[in-house]
Amino acid sequence: MIRTADVVVIGGGCMGASTACFLARLGVTVALVEKNYFASGPTGQSSAVVRQHYSIQQLVATSLRSLKVFQNFHEVVGGSPEFVKTGWLLLGDDGYAPTLRSLVEMQKKLGVNVELLSPTELNSLQPQTNVEDVVCVSYHPDTGYANPVATTKLFAERAQRDGAYLYENTMVTGIRAKGGRVHTVTTSKGEIDTPVIVNAAGPWGGKIGKMVGVDLPIGPTRHQIIVFQKPYDYWQPAMIYADLLQDSYFRPEGTDKFLVGASNEIFNHDKVNPDDYSGEADPETLPWSMERIRHRFPVMQRSSYRGGYAAVYDSTPDEQPIIGQMTEIDGFYCLVGWSGHGFKHSPAMGQLMAEMIITGTASDVDLSIFSPSRFREGFILNAKEF
């Protein structure tokens, strides 16, 4: 194991691997430490949707920046993240229509390819979709999904090619400080002296924070996915849907399956131990999911169940990330608390975190609203991101 590094990144999911990748490209000596194997946590079970619909401008900007990386991944990073362009649709009711109009206007100003559709236009685009309860629709043609494991692996491989040191099956057991600054990361395989640590440990981020005496309000929560086989007569192009009317989302998987998930308030509010939780979907999740996908796509009455699973989110009180350097101790940066929507931002956040560490600020995007100190200061972001 390397004895010293300019930066130690803790956590080998998409955020940690991306940060290590872009730090290494800038000539920084970086060690990426993962307690299991890369993408073994929430990243590997992510629905991996790459969308640009957000109500916070900074998240629109980072998701759009990330989309451009996914679209040009071979040139930027190398290899293929298996990005599949499907298009993304958000369905809402009459009460949400004014909000959606405002959000679409804001997103367009930031460069997002998005348009409002009427229910009739949606039905022309997706003829097998039930629109009887739909009032407002936004359509993002460039959205799709990627392979989260492949994406993380490619970030890590590029980091290694550029000089990073990668350590899997390496548990971080402690962090020592010296003179008010982080100094040493203790692991199951040895110690690394470093002046900078990036906490990208996802649901374990709170545990890492406690190692430097910092209380991060991260409550791991469980999120469930149900998989359905498409019937032979489902013929419309399979798009990704965010169905606000049913608190659910639908995402195609390959050419013949759909993943069905729920908004964070459904089934997913109980805190769990990220090292000891049920990875199976609960029995009641199947009928709930089946009812919703069959309502939206009546042809799915002839679909068949193909299993289910559960993953954990690193959830915060306002469901928004914790980004930046801690004020309590120098050199300790956080990139955690994404509450289930981190994957789509990971390319941009790796770039921005690298800039933040090297120059003290992230170019183009003001990330200060996600400051680690905001909860202590009573600043809660008032935004619900589906």
Could you provide a short overview of the structure?
This protein is α+β, with helices and mostly antiparallel strands. The protein is 25% helix and 26% strand. The chain has two domains: 7-48 and 148-217 and 318-370, FAD/NAD(P)-binding domain; 85-141 and 219-315, D-Amino Acid Oxidase, Chain A, domain 2 (2-Layer Sandwich), CATH 3.30.9.10.
Textual characterization of the structure:
The chain has 386 residues and is α+β, with helices and mostly antiparallel strands. It folds into 2 domains: 7-48 and 148-217 and 318-370, FAD/NAD(P)-binding domain, CATH 3.50.50; 85-141 and 219-315, 2-Layer Sandwich (D-Amino Acid Oxidase, Chain A, domain 2). It contains 9 helices and 20 strands. The protein has helices at 14-25, 57-71, 73-76, 97-109, 119-125, 148-161, 205-210, 285-296, 346-359, and strands spanning 7-10, 30-33, 49-50, 84-85, 88-92, 115-117, 136-140, 144-145, 165-167, 172-178, 181-187, 190-193, 197-199, 219-229, 240-243, 248-253, 257-262, 304-315, 322-325, 332-336. It has an 8-stranded mixed beta sheet with strand order 6-7-5-15-16-17-14-18, with helices on both faces. The longest helix has 15 residues, at 57-71. The chain is globular and about 65 Å long. The model has no long low-confidence stretch (mean pLDDT 95).
Descriptive keywords:
single chain; 386 residues; alpha+beta; FAD/NAD(P)-binding domain; D-Amino Acid Oxidase, Chain A, domain 2; 2 domains; 8-stranded mixed beta sheet; 6-stranded mixed beta sheet; 20 strands
